[in-house]
Write a structure and sequence with these properties.
482 residues, alpha/beta, Rossmann fold, 2 domains, 8-stranded mixed sheet, 14 helices
Length: 482
């Protein structure tokens, strides 16, 4: 068993000692993106964990970075709950399954509380809170405002009576006088308790860059950042009040263990490139592969000299542009990957993985050579080139999905196709929603490689993991033939 496999397996099995009561649950939401809900959610998770509690963290929406921070704070895997990517029953089942052994189940929302994909607010944080029957802790940015905060909270309280706002946290408070006025106004006009007030800070624990918050693996001292947030939460949040506003999670019949992993003799080995360049993996995707009987092998494309012996390879998204020079300099690894692909190694790549399999990426006027499986040159732009949920139909032949398969996913990228001479009609997926790779299509194919800009979630695309493992078995058998 490799160390990488051990790391993933330990993460899957984390938290297997049952608690004596039903867990308490809460949704941390904001009035908008950037309101401070990540600071509150991660800080609250870290503070409760430090106090000896077992916290099951969740992130609403298509997100890897916030989920990574929540996992660090809890010392346990963070799972994603996305009403767009998965059916409501599957979403609720996942929540119950991964909450059952915890003391607390904390969900960080995304965007504003009622922001969804349409006029009705479908797939919003509010709808998620209603689906899970959990109260909301509302985080409000109080920059340059006082009584108006009460009007905003009052509007949220009355906008949808199904949503229970259990408490409010005031963020970016400038002075004690401002806090006093806002606190009194909110509690007087809305009847909702203020359960914390975070002062404005000159230091940004979560520095921003082109795709949002800096990921934990790239933070200079993620451990110190978590510790700082835990201390701030313990100092400025009313932890007893927040616990009191939580609701019991109705575990009911969800008695299965948090992870169901199939153990088989001599399992297929599926590599997962997981380093500072490639970090975007849903925990559910990794667990789905193991549930099919695969052994996962962690690989570092920045320092490993070549691919280990594998039956398939999974390359997720991330920030290859930030490590382009290092990736290009590791020539022996690039050559090893080219040779394995030529030999028929099944490879599934998403977004950053797609870029890595291209010919080059240009950063600050300098082109960096990449794997070159696909004759595509990329560049990085200052504005997003695609952002949001996607829907596509796989129409062309590929190694993982039968023709006609419909996929719901998401894309978020600043990269642009700078040069590509092939015909877009050759792309195997037709976009029904989203941008895709080119001209409303997505999905580049070469031998047993499928690379898409679209990210998928295993719970929303249940055919993905079985297909990848099946292809890995086929490759192993083919290699064993004389």
């Amino acid at each position: 068993m490799t160390s990488g496999t051990t790391n993933i397996r330990n993460a899957v099995l984390a938290g297997n000692s049952p608690t004596s009561r039903a867990p308490l649950g809460l949704v941390v939401a904001g009035l908008s993106g950037g309101a401070g809900k990540s600071v509150v959610a991660v800080g609250l998770t870290a503070a409760l964990t430090r106090a000896g509690a077992k916290v099951a963290p969740f992130k609403k929406g298509p997100d890897y970075i916030d989920a990574g921070w929540l996992a660090l704070a809890a010392g346990a895997p963070c799972y994603n709950l996305d009403p767009f990517l998965m059916e409501r029953e599957i979403l609720r089942g996942s929540f119950l399954k991964h909450s059952r052994l915890a003391d607390y189940a904390l969900i960080e929302g995304n965007r504003g509380l009622f922001d969804g994909v349409d006029l009705e607010g479908s797939c919003s944080t509010a709808e998620l809170a209603v689906a899970l029957d959990l109260p909301v802790l509302l985080v409000v940015d109080c920059t340059k405002t006082t009584r108006t905060v009460a009007a905003l909270v009052l509007g949220c309280r009355d906008f949808d009576p199904r949503v229970r706002i259990g408490g409010v946290v005031l963020n970016r408070i400038g002075t004690g006088r401002q806090e006093s006025i806002v606190r009194q106004a909110v509690e007087h006009y809305t009847g909702i308790p203020v359960l914390g007030a975070l002062p404005r800070s000159r230091e940004d624990v979560f520095p921003q860059r082109h795709l949002g918050v800096t990921p934990g693996p790239e933070h200079e001292d993620a451990g110190a950042a978590i510790a700082s947030l835990a201390e701030r939460a313990a100092k400025y949040l009313d932890l007893p009040g927040i616990k009191a506003c939580m609701a019991e999670v109705a575990i009911g019949e969800a008695g299965a263990p948090p992870a169901k992993i199939s153990w088989v003799a001599d399992p297929v080995r599926i590599g997962v490139i997981r380093d500072a360049a490639f970090q975007f993996y849903y925990q559910e995707n990794l667990e789905a592969l193991m549930a099919e009987g695969a052994e996962l092998v962690e690989i570092n494309a920045l320092v490993d000299r070549e691919l280990p012996t594998l039956d398939a390879l999974y390359i997720g998204g991330g920030f290859p542009e930030n490590r382009a020079g290092e990736l290009a300099a590791n020539r022996s690894f690039l050559q090893s990957l080219r040779q394995r692909v030529a030999a028929g190694l099944p490879v599934y790549a998403e977004c950053g993985g797609l870029i890595y399999l291209g010919r080059s990426i240009t950063m600050a006027g300098q082109a960096h050579e990449l794997v070159g499986i696909f004759p595509v040159d990329f560049s990085l732009e200052k504005k997003p080139q695609a952002h949001g949920y996607t829907k596509l139909i796989l129409e062309g032949e590929n190694s993982f999905y039968p023709a006609g398969t419909r996929i719901s996913g998401h894309e978020f990228r600043y990269s642009r196709v700078q040069a590509w001479s092939a015909d877009p009609a050759g792309l195997v997926g037709r976009m029904e929603r989203g941008v895709g790779f080119a001209e409303g299509r997505d999905g580049l194919v070469h031998k047993n490689v499928l690379a898409l800009y679209t990210h998928i979630h295993a719970l929303g695309t249940p055919e993905w993991a079985p297909a990848l493992v099946k292809r890995a078995w086929a490759f192993r058998k083919a290699q064993a033939l004389p």
